[in-house]
Design a protein that fits this description.
111 residues; 5-stranded antiparallel beta sheet
Length: 111
């Protein structure tokens, strides 16, 4: 059970990640720094993203299975202006961090 979500990662925004790794994702925008988006989520699969122009390497695409609320939080985060997602792999036995439930402060001031 759960919702599949796709998370794009630039090469500089995370270590090598493999299927089965448990990851923490952090969101950074101009208005907030390093907010935990998800933590302790198992990676279902990893793909390589590439651009069509000159075959440029754009990073990885993570497939995750999460709750509906977590999927909505990821989609909302990716929709924020200047959103950057970073990932880290949890070590065996490492407890996940608490995820932020409200990302509204990361949207920044409205004109």
């Amino acid at each position: 059970p759960g919702v599949g979500v796709t998370v794009p990662l630039r090469p500089e925004n995370g270590p090598p990640i493999s299927r089965g790794d448990r990851v923490t994702l952090w969101l950074t925008t101009k208005a907030c720094r390093a907010v935990v988006l998800l933590s302790g989520v198992a990676v279902q699969s990893v793909g390589k993203a590439s651009g069509s122009a000159f075959g440029a390497e754009l990073g990885s695409v993570l497939q995750l299975r999460v709750s509906a609320a977590e999927a909505q939080r990821v989609v909302s985060a990716l929709d924020l202006p200047d959103a950057v997602l970073r990932a880290g792999v949890l070590a065996d036995g490492q407890q996940p961090d608490s995820a932020a439930t409200d990302l509204s402060r990361c949207d920044g001031p409205r004109p």
